[in-house]
Predict the 3D structure of the following.
Amino acid sequence: MPELLQKAWQLAAHHHEGQRYNTPQEGVTLPYLTHLGAVLIETNYIISQEPGLNANLMRLCAILHDSLEDTNLEEETIRTEFGEEVLAGVKALTKNESLPSKQAQMEDSLARILTQPREIAVVKLCDRINNLSPAPSYWDQAKKRAYRAEAELILEQLGPASPVAAARLRTKIAAYDVS
Ligand code: NI
């Protein structure tokens, strides 16, 4: 259903408007939508390689995966437009920022993702595959090492949901420069 995906994409474009992120090239930023597109492309690849996945659920959650965490989009809007299953998936992909540390937030989110259909775990793997592109130039070694360790935890816990995504994330971790 392209219309539903386009509706999600437009909603994400509207709510993430103005947000940009840093690239490895100093001073070069990209619109946040570039990240959402990259995660969507990654999920499409996994869908093409592994039959039996709920493609619509994965694509909608890929587009909306940061919308509750990083924008003022209301849960109610996701429920009304895309249904309970998509809302539950996006909520599991959203960190609980009232927890005290990044590690606690990640462990909590991973535990909630594991209660969802496996498609949600695959979206999280796809998100981290894209996020393990080379780090911004100002990240120090400790930050890069912590980020790679977090990726290893994601791979360990969610990798069984998708052999293809797990292999891609493993390759990205191996290639990630922490120097
Ligand atoms: Ni993301």
Observations:
- The chain has one domain: 2-175.
